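I am hoping you can look over what I have pasted underneath with an eye to the fold:
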Amino acid sequence: MKNKNVLVAYFSRTGENYNVGKISKGNTHIIAEMIAEETGGKLFQIEPVNPYPDEYNACVDIAKTEKENKSRPVIKGDIAVEKYDVIYIGYPNWWGDMPMPVYTFIEKHDWQGKTVIPFCTHEGSGLSDTENKIKKACDGATVLNGLAIRGTTAQKSQEQARKTTKGWLANHSR
């Protein structure tokens, strides 16, 4: 990955989160910063225009409805992924899928010839089938194996998260 133009695009949520309580920096945001620091990549946060509620159950209700309806929530801003060689895409795993704002972001761009590397935070489901969903959504991209880190590790064991992330990144730079 040396001498490549790297983007780290991610969706992350603050507020009340499953298994970690009320947080001011999202689990995926923490991992995205680690990846950007190690790769020299530019960070871009995927944010819906209408933020999810801070309260966990209220967020779950909205997010489940969006998933069932295959919604594409409007997002704030954008970045030209076409200018980058390697794009890391990060998200929390919500019911075996990416949050719908991530699809909004992906569907805005041409992925032809790009290298896409997924990473997610979760509380037991790992990447689920999200790597395959990214392969379908990022048509024309080469999608490499992703990283899955528990949100509790991202929040409460950051040195372990950093070590895991560095090891995973080392496998992609060979």
